[in-house]
Amino acid sequence: MRASDKAYAALRDDIIEWRLAPGTVLAEVEQSERLGISRTPLREALSRLTAEGLTTTAGGRGVVVTDISLEDIDELFELRETLEGKAAALAAERGDAATFERLRNELCQAPSLISAGDPARHDYYGLVGRLDTAIDAAIHNSYLAQAMRSLRVHLVRVRRLAADDAERLTAAAAEHAAIAEAIAAGNPRLAEAATTLHLHRSLSHVKATHTPQ
Question: Which domains does the chain have, with CATH numbers?
Answer without folding.
Answer: 3-65 (1.10.10.10), 70-209 (1.20.120.530)
